Amino acid sequence: MPSKRTARIGALTVAAVCSTVSAVVLTAPAHADTVHIHDIQGTTRTSPYAGQKVTDVAGIVTALRTYGSSRGFWIQDPTPDNDPATSEGVFVFTSSTPKVAVGDSVTVTGTVSEYVPGGASSGNQSLTEITKPTITVLSSGNAVPAPTVINSRSVPAAYAPAGDTAASGSINALTLEPTKYALDYYESLEGMNVQVADTRVVTATDPCSELWVTVKPHEHA
Length: 221
Description:
By secondary structure, the protein is mainly beta. It contains three helices and eleven strands, in the order H-E-E-H-E-E-E-E-E-E-H-E-E-E. The longest helix has 6 residues, at about 180-185. It is globular.
C-alpha cells in the first residue's frame, strides 16, 4: 500500500507503462461508441475491462507526453456520468511521440491494461491505460474539459479504507468512496484534467520528469 504521504499529494499527470507497442493515427468519420472512459475506469481501483479490447472509446485530448519511454496522451470524456467514483480520463500509451494535439476529438481502439509503477512489490496502485492503440482523429481545436480543482478542502482527511479481510487485506475490489478517503479521491480523478494552486513541491523530479505536490497547507511531505 502507498505511504500516507503519497495518498495526500496530487499530481497533474499520471505515469504510464513503458513497453514496445506502437500506435496508428487515422483521420476518418466518427464511429459509434461502444465503451465510455468511465466504464473502463469503473468504480474500483482496477478496470473491469482489464486485458480486454475496447473499440472506439471517445474523448478529447487534454495533454501529451512526448518524451521518455512512456510516451502517449490523455483523453477525457466531455460528457461525464454522474458517478463521482468513476474517472472520466485515461492515458493512451503509444510508446512513440503521439501524433495528436491537445483539443483533438478522437476515438481509440486498443487493449485495457493495468500498470503498477515500480512493479507489484512497490505497493503502488495500478494505473489504467489503453495500450496498442489505433487512434482516429475526428476533429481538432475543441475545448478541453474544464479541470477539476483540487485544494485542501476537497481532499479527505482519512487516508484509505480498511482492507478486505476476504482478499488478504487488499482494497482493490472495494468500491471507491472519494468523499471519504484521500486514496479513493485521487483514484477517482485518475487521468483527468485537474488544477491546483498554492501547492508545495514535496519530491524531486522523477524519471518521467514529474513532480509531486501537496495541497495541504501544513504538510511538508
